[in-house]
Amino acid sequence: MHAIEKILAVAAGKSEVKAGEVVFARIDVAEVNDLYLQVIKSFYELGDGEIVIPEKTVFVFDHYSPAPTIRSAENHKKMREFCREKGIKNLFDIGEGICHQVLVEGGFVGPGKVVIETDSHATTLGALGAFATGVGSTDLAIALKTGRLWFKVPEVIKIEIKGKLPVGVMAKDIILHILGRLKQDFAIYKAIEFNGGVVRALSMDERFVLCNMAVEMGAKTAYIQPDSSTYNYLMGLGCDISVFSEYQTDSDYIYSAKYEFDVSDLTPQVALPGSVDNVVSVSDCEGIKVDQIFVGTCTGGRLNDIRVLAEVLDGEKVSECTRLIVIPASKRIFMEALKKGYVEKLLKAGAVFSTPGCGPCLGAHEGVLASGERCISTSSRNFPGRMGSPDAQIYLSSPLVAAYSAIYGRITNPLHFI
């Protein structure tokens, strides 16, 4: 079996499962973010009662943090009341960060865990060897009621990333390149395993980026085989690593498909406005004026992203014709960036920091775009209206491309300076 199949088999109390089979699996973590008050409504529609997994239930206020509207404030209030009433102690209120990052830092996720979230980017957590996926409000409510949920065991596609990663190229460039080749509907209800020497050489922050954007190809979940980097990362967080080596993929496993990407000659990539899979080399769109640069979200707001940005902008200034918004993915990341001096360097350069959370990624607050404006963002999606006006344009890039673009006020190829 594949490691993903082994995880689901154990969670379902079965000795073996196969792709296409429907299983009822034990849930290790059920996370609700502040977009989904409907979870509570669905819970009560299914009948009152207690939550059978209160210790495994996590609420995170990240999409509207702090609340920008009366409605979102009311939602927060109702969620706080629900958590108190049902004995849910794992409530991460405003400013703690984005749900995926909060779950990682809180020690909730690790190899072999079955994680469900009311957020499609739950695939991020596959970088730690978990089976993690987004679900709807009713499914989440059922999990709270029963501690279990049904899944169709997904087919697994292997994507091997080979070669030597060039200087100036980041994980965001790799996944944009893959998306550009395979397209948005490539892996609907399938699992993607990222493998190969390049993946093993990536830091955990960069591995999260690959798994995060697997959902942009339609993937049900994503997976990276745990190794020494995973082990050390989890040890640093004080996580339980007792099952670290139990979920290895059988050497004779037959994947539903295999793809290889040699990134030795890869250049920085940019997704053009309107579609995440409309990807070109940065050299094909450099010089385009941008009104805003956004570095943040569950894709590009980790410490490594902020470090890259700070190192480029150290001693420089953000262009007068643009603005740079930086939002760390969590309070912990924000505090670490403060300790390392990244925040001071960026503030001196002219950057603006906002509360850890999703920020303008979903077009709610903290940097939404006006009609006709252009933004280059380290986020995951660039659909019309995603960050504000449907007449605004969103370009997706790595933090490195974003950093140089902030200095010059135009999309800029970092290879000119490296």
CATH superfamily of the largest domain: Aconitase, domain 3
Largest sheet: 5 strands, parallel
Strand order of the largest sheet: 4-3-2-5-6
What would you report as the Rg, rounded to the nearest angstrom?
21 Å
CATH domain fold name of the largest domain? Aconitase, domain 3
Average pLDDT confidence is 96
Percent helix: 25-40%
How large a portion of the residues is in β-strands, by DSSP E?
A: 15-25%
**At the first level of CATH, what is the class of the largest domain?**
Alpha Beta
CATH architecture verdict of the largest domain = 2-Layer Sandwich
A few lines on this structure:
The chain is of the alpha/beta class. It is built from 14 helices and 18 strands. Helix 2 packs across helix 5, helix 6 (171-182) runs parallel beside helix 8 (204-212) and helix 11 (303-313) packs parallel to helix 14.
